[in-house]
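Fold this sequence, please.
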Amino acid sequence: MMKSQNEKEKNNYYISAFYWKNYNAVSKAKMDVEEIFERRNFRPVELFKDSSNGNIRVFSLTKLLGLVFSKNRKKFKNSNVFLQNGTGIDVLISPFIKSAFKDGKRIIMIHDIESLRIGRKADTAREKMIFSNFTHAICHSEEMVDFLKNELKFKGRTYVLGFFDYLVKDKVDFSSRNFPKPNEKFKIAYAGNLSK
C-alpha cells in the first residue's frame, strides 16, 4: 500500500528526557523508551544536555526557545512528537511542544500521574495544564486512563500499554550502585513503589 504524500512528509520526533543514568525505576524506563525511539528512527529534540560528569541531564532554556523561535522550527511542520512525562518542568515545556508541533500528533508517554499517586490538589491543576497540550496519551492501565479522562479532563485519544519489560543489554554498567554485582544472586527484580 502506497503512503500518501502527507504521510511521507511526517516525521516522528521525541523530546529527549531528563534523567539520572541509574538502573532504577526513576530513570531505567525513560532510558529504555528513548532507546526504542532511536531503534524506530525517531529524531531526538534535545531540550536537556549532559552535565559535566555525564550522570545527570540539565535543562537548556536556549534549546527550549529554539523549538519555537529558531529558523529550524519549520522542520516540525506536519510532524509527530513524543514526550515522556516526569521531567519536573513539564508544565513549562509542554506549551512550547504544542506550539512547535501544532499540526501533528503530540503524544505523552505517562509514567506516573502525581495527582493519582500522591493526591495533592496542586498536582491536579498542574497536570491538567500539562496534559491539555497533547492530542494522545499512552498509559499503563485502564484505571490510569479513567483518572486521566475523568479527573484531569483529558480530551485526546488514549492507549493502554500495560506492563512492559525493561531492555537488557549484552554489556551492562556493573559499576552502577543500583545494579547487582556479577557474583550477587537475586531471583526477582521489581521496579515500583511499595510505600503507602
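The chain is about 30% helix and 15% strand. The first helix runs from residue 5 to 9.
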